[in-house]
Amino acid sequence: MAYITLHSSLIAPIRKLTEGTRESTSFNFQKRINVNTRDELGQLAADFNIMARTIDTHIKNLRKKISVLLPDQEVISAVYGVGYRYISPPE
Hints:
Elements: H1 2-25, H2 40-69, H3 73-80
């Protein structure tokens, strides 16, 4: 019985947070974490969701600005090199 309580209150939320952070390392900031607790893990999940939403919004805004300022993909690649792939529009 103690394992079930520990699993649902601690292990499962940590696993969800781990999955979300792994997604973000792949530059997928659309992943949201659903942890329905009112403790520190719930607050951490809520903060993660705010951070991911903010980063996702900034990336979308950068994509729009870049597409207006530098519409030629070859020029963008030449200027920004490998790093540009993280903010370039999906193909």
